[in-house]
Amino acid sequence: MMDVVILCGGRGTRLFPATATLPKLLVPIGPRTMLELLIAHLEGQGIQRVILCAGYRASEIISFLTERSVEPVRELGDGDLGAVVRGPRGRPVEVVAADTGLDVPTGARIHRISPYLRSQECMVVYGDVLGDVAVDRLLHHHRWRCKSVTVTTAKARSPFGHVIVGEQGQVRAFQEKPVLTDPVNIGFMVLDRTVVADELNPHSGQLEEDLLRRLAVDGQLSAFEHDGHFEKMDTLADRERLEGLWKQGELDWLTAPVSDLATTL
């Protein structure tokens, strides 16, 4: 069974004031927090173990898990905690919450939690991105491509109107927020355990600026194309949009049935 690492240590400044007293992972969308929505999807994909790379207001996450654990919590040292929660289908999910520090790059955060990893591969998820990524197909793709890391990509719309300009400054066309030609990284990355052990250390930088760039140059980075749903919660506008989708019942894909291959992870 593959471990899932959720990156959730950032300050969430673009979500202020929602993050004035809460980490982004505990900001609610409808009746559920981002953490609960992520666990709902992961539980539905057969995931049984999640590790949180907490940082900003880590104590709030630890308190949240302590209150909801269906088994006695375990103190793991250095302020880390182990709990067991239940997703919407009632399946137990083990959650390890590790305080990886304030303003620490994501590569160093993953190195910090590496002693908790048990599986040969782990999936790294952004704590502010929701998506109905098929974990079984992602893992199959990763193993088939035989690369060190696989990132999940998706098509996205530009937040701006695009202007097509011809000679002498003449506007030839205007496209309102078109779909971008190049895909975007939405997280849901599969990392071989050897990469975590050999390439990450306490001084590692941001994954995208450090490890992933190096692996791309070395030909050890593959992409898994996701053509389903995905939503981000990076700003207050994003949160308002997600609230609207929740009220309209358009986030039900987060609790879709378990895929046929999920038990083989």
UniProtKB/TrEMBL annotation:
Residues annotated as domain Nucleotidyl transferase: 5-201
Listed GO MF terms: glucose-1-phosphate cytidylyltransferase activity
Record's keyword terms, sorted: Nucleotidyltransferase, Transferase
Keyword Nucleotidyltransferase: yes
InterPro entries assigned to the protein according to its UniProt record, in alphabetical order: G1P_cyt_trans-like, NTP_transferase_dom, Nucleotide-diphossugar_trans
Gene3D superfamilies named among the record's database cross-references: Spore Coat Polysaccharide Biosynthesis Protein SpsA, Chain A
Domain of life: Bacteria
One Pfam family named in its UniProt record: NTP_transferase
Keyword Nucleotidyltransferase assigned: yes
PANTHER family: GLUCOSE-1-PHOSPHATE CYTIDYLYLTRANSFERASE (PTHR47183:SF1), GLUCOSE-1-PHOSPHATE CYTIDYLYLTRANSFERASE-RELATED (PTHR47183)
Protein name from the UniProt record: Glucose-1-phosphate cytidylyltransferase
Provenance organism: Streptomyces alanosinicus
